[in-house]
Amino acid sequence: MVNLNMDGPARDQVMKLIQEKDRIENEIREQNLVLEENNIGMQDPLVDGDGYPRNDIDVYKVRHARHLIICLQNDHKNIMKQIERGLGEVHSQFRANGEGTSSNGQSHSQHINGYAEVTHNVSDARPNANDQGFAVIAFVLLGSPADTAGLHENDELLEFGTINATNFTDLNQVNNLVQHSVGQPIQLRVRRGSVVLSLTITPRVWTRPGLLGCRIEKKS
């Protein structure tokens, strides 16, 4: 693999977008902490059985945090789309410069601050086992750890922590890793179209059942 150190406006723009994405994710985490401190989720009622504001929570802070989380999640989805488009532009420039493959015909991965885009394999290239998908994301719940991490429906899992196509047997491996990683970040690599992204997800208890808020299915 080679590091993508090519200068140019497309790369600079992607770098700025990634920095903005990180800022948004930090803000989402901060607002989620407000909800956790009040022991309330995104959908729990703010009034008691008599219709009065609950006195066991800070209603103003909770309402404000919920509003910000919704806005920030929308911003996050939009900026992820921009990053994907930007990576596509950088990818095209990289290939145009003749730097997409090595001398033996194998493809390289390009990295920008943790994001990787894999060039198309040439016909005689040996496939990288770690770039074979073993599972797919069936759906992602809004406001979940998976949503915050940037996972999308139909993302193809290439790596989930230490799990990849070479050692994957069944989804119990993923479930066990998640159960033993509550509050700890797990590094992921996913393929989304022609782009491969490196993401980080942190399993945690949130407002709905499950620690991720997404459904992972074995690739057929």
TrEMBL record:
Q: Which UniProt keywords apply?
A: Chaperone, Proteasome
A GO cellular component annotation in the UniProt record: nucleus
Which residue positions does the secretion signal occupy? none
> What GO biological process terms are annotated to this protein in UniProt?
proteasome regulatory particle assembly
A Pfam family cross-referenced in the UniProt record is: PDZ_2
What domain of life? Eukaryota
Q: Does the keyword Lipoprotein apply?
A: no
Q: Which Gene3D superfamilies match?
A: 2.30.42.10, 6.10.140.1710
Q: Note whether Plastid occurs among the keywords.
A: no
Domain named PDZ is located at 97-194
InterPro entries xref list: Nas2_N, PDZ, PDZ_sf, PSMD9
Coiled-coil residues are none
Q: Which PANTHER family does the entry mention?
A: 26S PROTEASOME NON-ATPASE REGULATORY SUBUNIT 9 (PTHR12651)
Q: What is this protein called?
A: 26S proteasome non-ATPase regulatory subunit 9
What organism is this sequence from?
Answer: Bicyclus anynana (Squinting bush brown butterfly)
